[in-house]
Amino acid sequence: MKQVTVNVRLYGGFRKYKDSVDLSIPAGTPVSAVKESLCQALGPQSRDLIMDSVVANDQTILPQGYVIEGDMRLSILPPVCGG
Amino acid sequence: MDQACDIKVSVSTEALDANNACGFVTDPANGAIDMFIGVVRDNHLGQTVTGITYDVHETLAERELMCICREAQGIWPKTRYFVSHYHGYLPVGGVSVLIAVSAPHREESFEACRYVIEEIKKRAPVWKKEHYVGGESEWLPGHSLVMQGEEEQAVCCGKCGAHG
């Protein structure tokens, strides 16, 4: 199966791990599985924050079922507190 | 960033300037300007705060700020908006967010300005790391952007079959 590389930029509480992480995942992977892959990359202590977070591209937040077909850059957005 | 002639939004690493905000929303047809200035305070939940680092997804934040202003303009017509959020470290007293709204009358300017700041707190991709007097620091909890039901379906890619 074709593998694609997803660069995930980390924000807020994820910054303690690093600023971004590259994930190698099968083409056709949904966003929900990207979150699982990210959890494996960052460690089990990151799971609760990942599950409370959303994945976005530079245009919008992506639904859990959004399918990743090729290499791309995404962001993981934890709960927000601007202002 | 797409800017409307009567809405200006930005994420800035420079000090936010209230005069710029007021000047942009000034309009001879509008008799009221309301301004909200968010400032770093020196305490939170009993701890002495020395400053806050603001982390921001700049592209998405500017999109969301514009979206919020357009929504407000749909509710309160003939209003003008200037919204800027700071990105980076601010000491106590630093200005983190600046919102100016002008409207034909004061009531709309108050209501629209309140709407914008409340929506920013719930929706803008901005995160705060508080720094305390002892040298510790902590990312603050916030509002989850996780989508539910119809909201998720509205932006579904159409390929996943999850909502069929």
TrEMBL record, chain A:
Pfam families: ThiS
SUPFAM superfamilies, alphabetized: MoaD/ThiS
Name by which UniProt lists this protein: MoaD/ThiS family protein
Organism of origin: Micavibrio aeruginosavorus
From TrEMBL, chain B:
InterPro entries registered for this protein in UniProt: MoaE_sf, Mopterin_biosynth_MoaE
Pathway named in the protein's UniProt entry: Cofactor biosynthesis; molybdopterin biosynthesis
Presence of the UniProt keyword Transport in the record: no
Known catalytic reactions: 2 [molybdopterin-synthase sulfur-carrier protein]-C-terminal-Gly-aminoethanethioate + cyclic pyranopterin phosphate + H2O = molybdopterin + 2 [molybdopterin-synthase sulfur-carrier protein]-C-terminal Gly-Gly + 2 H(+)
TM stretches of this protein: none
Pfam families cross-referenced by the UniProt entry: MoaE
Enzyme Commission code: 2.8.1.12
Recorded GO MF terms: molybdopterin synthase activity
Keywords assigned: Molybdenum cofactor biosynthesis
Subunit annotation: Heterotetramer of 2 MoaD subunits and 2 MoaE subunits. Also stable as homodimer. The enzyme changes between these two forms during catalysis.
Family the entry assigns: Belongs to the MoaE family.
Protein name: Molybdopterin synthase catalytic subunit
Organism: Micavibrio aeruginosavorus
Highest classification ranks of the organism: Bacteria, Pseudomonadati, Bdellovibrionota, Bdellovibrionia, Bdellovibrionales
